[in-house]
Amino acid sequence: MAHTPMILDGKALAATLHDEQAKKVQALAPRAGRPPGLAVILVGEDPASRTYVANKRNACRKVGFHAPEYNLKDSTTTQDLLSLIDTLNADPAIDGILVQLPLPAHVRKEEILLRIAPDKDVDGFHPANLGRLVAGEPGLVACTPRGIITLLDRAGIPISGKHAVVIGRSVIVGRPMSLLLLNRDATVTICHSKTPDLPAAARQADILVAALGRPEMIGRDYIKPGATVIDVGISRGADGKLKGDVRFDEAREVAGAITPVPGGVGPMTIATLLDNTLDAYLHHTGLSSP
Ligand SMILES: Nc1nc(=O)c2c([nH]1)NC[C@@H]1CN(c3ccc(C(=O)N[C@@H](CCC(=O)O)C(=O)O)cc3)C=[N+]21
Questions:
Q1: Which segments constitute the Tetrahydrofolate dehydrogenase/cyclohydrolase catalytic domain (predicted)?
Q2: Which of the residues 134, 178, 235, 254 has an alpha carbon 20 to 30 A from that of 140?
Q3: What is the ipTM of this complex?
């Protein structure tokens, strides 16, 4: 019989998390006198960004968040954005602020991300939150890596004592992913484009996280039999179909567990954005989780 791995169904788990989040909002909002608030800011007309932002707002509405929209024109200046962020930082109905990336080239991204109050930084991109993660202190953590930890935990895949290999060193995924795994007592190897013999390094992994952003690069020869394979890639092919960084058809023949694309990490990123916003809401209201 052909080998069949456990499929880590991020879409199904995200739906479960959204149900749990909706119940929390129902229990907490009457006590706080308001629902959680997440402001999502989109600058420009990029069609992929529009779709992602629409998905985030829909998820917010579904669970009962206050989710005001800021759709700004492409010509929006750094100053315009900074004053909007100042307003939202001071707004007691807002717990989280998300500025959709990428921003237009004329906007100074670092200055924008630095201006978001760290306790409203539900993306976890502010240096204060990155520093807390490095120090192993509590803080808001980037949605994709935190969502991957949730996916592993809910699937009952152990992390402590395992060898995790993260391919990719971005500030948004690779680096925070590595630190989260390290904070959970994994032995962590971070690989990147200059790693010699990447397949050999990847084959060390009990948990392999592919976050390199190269469509379908990770094949059978990168995977230790039985390993858990997490595919963070989301490239859109010429045919409009979403492609991961992993060759799913090859990987499924050796992996013990694997995330599909679509339906794996992507929906978990959105569910975790809502979890981060709920955490910020609990912090702002002084309530504890029901
Ligand atoms: N400030 C900021 N924070 C982000 O978290 C952020 C961002 N900017 N810019 C863009 C990336 C990308 N991202 C995704 C979220 C969900 C899916 C997702 O749900 N994907 C579905 C499929 C959606 C489709 O079919 O296009 C899936 O994989 O099943 C994908 C990508 C968040 N990002």
A1: 8-123
A2: 235
A3: 0.97
